[in-house]
Fold:
Amino acid sequence: MNLDEIAPEEVVDGFMVPAKMTLEQKRRADGQLARIRQERFANRSEPEKVYGQLLQLKIQMEDYIQQDTFDPKKNFAYFLKSYIELQHKKKAEVALELDIHKTKLSQLLSGNRAPSEDIFIRLEFHSNRFISARHWFRLLVKQQENYMMTNTSLRNKEKKHVKGHVAIEF
Amino acid sequence: MYLLNRGVDPPAPVKAIIEPITLSDLPKLTKKAFLFNWKDLVETQLWKLRLADSKEMLGAMSLTDYPHEYRIEINLIASRRDNVGADKQYDRIAGCLIGWACRLAVKQYGYLACVSLRPKTRLVNHYQAKYGMLLAGQQLFLEGTPLYHLIQTYIDYEP
Structure:
């Protein structure tokens, strides 16, 4: 099959066909790209930068929620801290915007207080609905799931309450 | 993420998945099926696109990461031989794979993220028109708003 015989509009819908370049041509092309990017970067607006950081955080949350393993560092507090930091705002300012006491925000950030659904929903609206309440909620679910499955003393305590069980064989 | 199935009337969206190419996929990544010699690219990051309800590869992509430049380069994207040209069944294969490269770049580099490619000269205008790519001499690239837009259009948007 010769892609040159296919309409370019169709080719670009299914392919990225590379040009043949020598190493020297590639080196020059990379230098040119770097210069152009540098010029553009100087003109990048602050909201565009914040959007990029917010999108990065959202993708990191999505991938972490999707992955099977639990990372104790990546809890609700970790992502909330990143969310606040990327806005270059003081905690007191964010607490005011979320209409919660600054002590409560500090407790959420230190992990000493579990977030509730009102916090998830307020965070969704605070991000202009960019990061949904579901994302924040699922971070907490992941924490709770790990706690439930790994807390031996809790599991042993609850096991004593079970007075019968399903008979299974295989 | 979805492809557009043109094999039904009217054309309908169908859920797609992109995931890393595994060792067991490599024997299927042949020149006969995917039109290019992929053996030279086994050291690069290889990704495949498939329908959510099928294990068959529909598209493949090779990437190289340049961390010092906050840039990911697309070396090659190809659709499977039986899905090429005006009579093909699925639209949006390259768009989804390019969008995926953009997503990977943002995940790693945030607002500094850049995706670049060096397409054949005759296709440059068409990549620019279809994907909003920017021209930098002999290369095309995406960063900032056009890059975010591609993620929204091809990865996040659910019809």
Notes: DSSP finds nine helices and no strands in chain A. Residues 108 and 114 of chain A are 6 Å apart (CA to CA). The mean pLDDT of chain A is 94.
